[in-house]
Design brief:
alpha+beta, OB fold (Dihydrolipoamide Acetyltransferase, E2P), 2 domains, 5-stranded mixed barrel, 37% helix
């Protein structure tokens, strides 16, 4: 039989690649028909942190935050690029598994595994870039961040100094709490929970901020 003619490695890779591919197809279909919100939850984000902005107290537990378990929540990131997510792992197993399966019959096992690892990793990185672009479009929506200049925000993810990297800030904009990428020209990193002022735009979805802390 066909199955019995396969090596043990091919059988394992076929099962892994088939399951991963099937799950990827299901997730893609759900995303296309708008059911990917089932991956997220709309609810209170717990926490005791109060955000003080323009003399207005905003409790961080009072806003809805869509957390995409399959892509937004990353187990490992490089430069803000979320690579090791559930979607990324599925892409790695799917592409890498099929490559190993196809190569195992005519190539040394070590070479098949190496090429499979490289191809799977490339697939995960490309998917991460694609999903980041999609989420940026989603998050920007009809929001005009140009009107946010001058507002006060709270740092959600540390912002590296001198524009050397991106962090994230949270603030109320156009009637809802938003989480936006941000950079700073300050000479020191701006740490989480610190207050900043939005002074400009780096691009349509990235803000330029500066610390409001008084220097001694």
């Amino acid at each position: 039989m066909w199955w019995e003619s396969l090596s043990s490695l091919q059988q394992v890779m076929f099962i892994i690649a088939t399951v991963a591919t099937a799950l990827m197809i299901i997730l893609i279909i759900m995303m296309l028909i708008g059911m990917d919100h089932g991956e997220a939850f709309d609810g209170d984000v717990g926490g005791d942190m109060d955000l003080h902005m323009d003399d207005t107290d905003v409790d961080s537990g009072d806003f809805d935050h869509d957390a995409d378990v399959f892509n937004h929540e990353s187990f490992f990131s490089i430069g803000g690029l979320k690579i090791v997510t559930i979607r990324g792992v599925l892409a790695f197993l799917s592409i890498g598994g099929w490559v190993v399966y196809l190569m195992a019959e005519s190539s040394p096992i070590w070479l098949a595994l190496l090429v499979g690892f490289i191809c799977g990793s490339a697939a995960a990185v490309l998917l991460a870039y694609a999903m980041r672009a999609i989420f940026r479009l989603e998050s920007s929506g009809n929001l005009d961040y140009g009107t946010a200049v001058g507002k006060i925000a709270i740092v959600y993810i540390r912002i590296p100094k001198s524009g050397s990297g991106q962090g994230k800030v949270m603030f109320t904009h156009q009637g809802k709490m938003v989480e936006v990428d941000a950079i700073t020209k300050d000479s020191e990193d701006i740490l989480t929970k610190k207050e900043v002022k939005i002074v400009g735009l780096e691009n349509e979805t990235t803000l330029i901020v500066k610390s409001t802390a008084k220097k001694e």
